Amino acid sequence: MPHYLIAQSELPEEREARRKRAGQSSGETYAATLAQMQPGIDTTIASPADADTPVFSAERLASFDAVFLTGSPMHVYDDGPEVDRQLDFMRAVFAAGVPSFGSCAGLQIAVAAAGGQVRKMPERMEAGIARRISATEAGRDHPLLAGRPPSWDAPAIHGDEVLELPPGATLLASNAVTRVQAAEIRYDRGIFWGVQYHPELALREIAIALAAQADDLVEAGLADRKSDVTTRAADIDALHDTPDSRALHWQLGIDGEFAEERLRRREIGNFLANLSALREG
């Protein structure tokens, strides 16, 4: 049975804050999603940014079938021991040759570890729904995006973005807000597939995250009032319970690629389906 390592870059206080809001840390969300997709798997959750987390040896990392990197509030362009520990961990994953997948900050961590650049988004955040993501020419035939239509929407909430991919990386998808929405990175002995959006999250978690960041969204100019954010979050929360609602599809301007859990998780499913090929590399 597969055994996956889930690396969450949230710090302890951030994990507890997320548990209070959404009931789970980001690593626990990933573990639950993977268990739903592959019942019976083993998962280990680690927090490499924490000062008291033991360093993973190359042999220990190689014992896992894959590594997953979660989203978090971490800014990888900040100087500090937490960021250094997280980047050192990711470089060790690349060196061990273990296939890895990450979303949001997980993508940014892999980019920075391999020599790329991440920045604070200069104009605004992308929050709630990442609109009209489209595969690049390289992405159209890439197995990470297998089954995606020419353009799709996805759950997203981030204020940082990839400025420059590292050498050995391939841009797979973009939209008008964030150029790097999906990428493959080949570095050292490893292969990483990642997305800026959140295929692992339930829609209710996106709704909770939106409501928690209402002040930031107003400040960023994405909403005029906190009540506007509350309304949008309530609609996304309702979609969690009634994904087939035609009224909510119309109100939110989305289709099944966003509303249906199975379709929303395509990239994770594609990664899992290609693990054997990725290990051979």
Automatic annotation (TrEMBL):
A family per Pfam: GATase
InterPro entries: ChyE-like (IPR044992), Class_I_gatase-like (IPR029062), GATASE (IPR017926)
Segments passing through the bilayer: none
Domain Glutamine amidotransferase positions: 60-205
Taxonomic superkingdom: Bacteria
GO-annotated molecular function: GMP synthase (glutamine-hydrolyzing) activity
Matches recorded under PROSITE patterns: GATASE_TYPE_1
Entry annotated with the keyword Transmembrane helix: no
Protein name: GMP synthase (Glutamine-hydrolyzing)
Origin species: Sphingomonas pseudosanguinis
